[in-house]
Amino acid sequence: MDWGEIWNTIKNFFTDNVWNIVAFFAALIIGLIVIKLLLNLTRKLFSKTRMEKVSQKFLYNIIKFCLYLVLILILLSLLGVSMTGVLAAVSAAVLAIGLALQNNIANLANGIIIVTSKMFKKGDYIVVDGVEGSVEEINFLFTTIMTSDNKKITIPNSTIINSSVINSGANATRRIDLTFSVAYESDVEKVKKIVVDVMKSDGRVLLDPAPFCRLKTLGASSIDFFANCWVDGEDYWDVYYYIMETVYNEFKKNKISIPYNQIEVRNRTDKVVLPYDKEPLQKRVEKVRVEKKHRINLETDSLSDIFKHKKKEKKRKGKVQEEKSLNEKEEPQLEISKINIAPEEKKESEKALETKPEQKKRKKKNAE
Description:
- There is one protein chain.
- Among the domains are: 3-100, Orthogonal Bundle (Helix Hairpins); 119-167, SH3 type barrels; 173-253, Alpha-Beta Plaits.
- It contains eleven helices and eight strands.
- The protein has helices spanning 3-16, 18-47, 53-78, 83-100, 102-117, 157-161, 188-201, 236-253, 303-330, 343-353, 356-367, and strands spanning 125-128, 131-138, 142-146, 152-156, 165-167, 173-182, 212-218, 223-232.
């Protein structure tokens, strides 16, 4: 095909489909304008509602995606593309993406649950999965928490949904619970008055409900008082530390003793008996270790392993043979010839070889 034929093909395409091309560009321009207007209208409507920012952003992105998808399908239909094939391709792509991102899809679904159920909001102090801190950001995939020591921790939404969540910032006010232990000789009413007066002395403590203090437990070495008061959520820790420090100072000022654990030490006068085994340590007996022979397996052993084993075996046999020959050389060659030994010497040698019982029998016989 030469350039003339290519040019004629392009020319014929535009000539035959001139109205389709005009409709395509008209639909493209009008579609973009309509989408922009709809998105602006959606943004204004969201700004007038009390919906969470995260929910607004998520719904806005979904609407935007759907509008552009509809515009693309309209443009493809104007070009004469079969919608059946397009829908099949889109379905296959969605399925493949869903399988590849199934964990993220689970986090996305759980993120929608967190936002729609209003489990917590930005700024709340929560405890989840052993992590506690203020919520800094809520996404549809994860939640970001800022701890009290300024660490940024990101937790997947699936973990949050599957865990118990303690939201300390859900309400405007919080209750401070305190326990004070004093000695048994302390005046109960005086202790109660000191604790309540300290709590009322701080203007951040709410007077309704009123601060509370009562005797709770009679312990082994102390009596324990339970106290509480209500404060605004942002004042919790400041008021807590103020009450603890001031109550301690007031107890000392009013000579109220705070007991602590004591250790009683006694001097033993009896003789300590430590039984033990008097037998000495056993003598070391070296274990006789027999080298295991390697069996050649033609199916599992490689050719190099077989040659290495044969070489090692040959070396071992040569070493054994060498040790055997050395032992034979070291053995004394004692040959006693019966011809060279005199009868008297033979008798003496036989006497020397006799055992002690035989020697006794022989002496007894000679004496008789």
